[in-house]
Amino acid sequence: MDAMQRENAYTLAYQSRVGPVEWLQPYTEDALHGLGEAGVKELVVVPISFVSEHIETLEEIDIEYRHIAAEAGIENFLRVPALDTHPTFISALADLVETSMAEEPVDLATFTQLPQQTKLYPQEKWEWGWNNSSEVWNGRLAMLGFLAVLLELLSGHGPLHALGLL
What are the tens digits of pLDDT across the range 73-85? Predict the structure, then answer.
């Protein structure tokens, strides 16, 4: 808002929280309730991380959050459309590509290194009793299941074929 030299009131909130893992806050649902309690009657939602219309804009914001906003007392709920294929957006993307191609190449290994203090598992203990070890085992079991299905697809034999599912 400072860069645009605007004094509009705004709230930054986060969506897409799934499962027991702690998510960025404030959660959008909580922010909507808070805005309603503060007497806000008109709200324009600007989904700054989305560049295209998809399930999170069309279903989550336009339907679910609109309903929550109405329950909270917000009477006029609007969402700014995504950029999609707007010519200015496409031109800006092209400019970024051209600028990047003119610069020195970046070594992928250097670019993807995490800072030394990065904590990959910020949760000490998760709400449902899961911990880092159980999450690792969950991933291993999921990969094992994926490999079993892949092997069955390649061989054409196995329990899923026997049940008529493949």
Answer: 999 999 999 999 9
- Report how far residue 26's alpha carbon sits from residue 131's, in angstroms, rounded to the nearest whole number: 24
- Whether pTM exceeds 0.85: no
Closest CA relative to residue 123, chosen from 13, 26, 19:
19
> pLDDT tens digits for 104-118?
887 888 777 766 665
Q: Which amino acid is residue 88, in one-letter code? A: T
CATH 3.40.50.1400, domain 28-105, yes or no: yes
DSSP state of 27: B
Question: Residue 146: CB partners within 8 Å, gap ≥ 6?
Answer: none
65 and 57 in contact (C-beta within 8 Å)?
no
Does a cis peptide bond (omega within 30 degrees of 0) precede residue 26?
yes
Label residue 77 exposed, middle or buried (CB < 10 Å: 0-12, 13-18, 19+). Answer: buried
Helix ranges (DSSP H) in 40-158: 55, 66-72, 87-102, 108-111, 132-155
